[in-house]
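Hello,

Our lab assistant flagged a job as stuck in the queue for most of the afternoon. It eventually completed. Since we weren't sure the result was trustworthy after the delay, we are filing this so someone can double-check. Below is the sequence as submitted and the structure that was eventually returned. Let us know if re-running is recommended.
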Amino acid sequence: MLRGAAQPIVKLGLESWPDAFAATTVGYVASAIVLVSVRRVVSPAPLPRDPRVLWYCVIGLCNGLSVVFLYTALTHGPVTVVAPLMATYPLIVMGLNRVIHGDRALTPTTFAGIAISVAGVAVVLAAG
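-- returned structure --
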């Protein structure tokens, strides 16, 4: 429910302040405050040094850019078009994972999930 409600709520916010970069910044700062606060309460010890932190930074940058692009799309388009198209990202991730890593089995259940996702997006776009 929260996942489905997030984009319409963001769209409402973008109507009063149509700046995707500001919306992304506010969202990430709020998330960072919550995460740092919970981390300090649960385990106040300092984080160990890990060379993989650079990869987390790169992934975080990519994620941040994707949110900026999503909010830009919501600023310029109706949520009934943007949200269903954005909801297809797991299909793209699965396909890329299969191509790059080769570790996603394509079972009948997988194909059924893909078909349902594509059909759902088609129905929403046709109704909009």
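-- support follow-up --
The delay was a queue issue, not a problem with the job. The result is valid. The chain has two domains: 1-77, 87-128. The CA atoms of residues 60 and 93 lie 16 Å apart.
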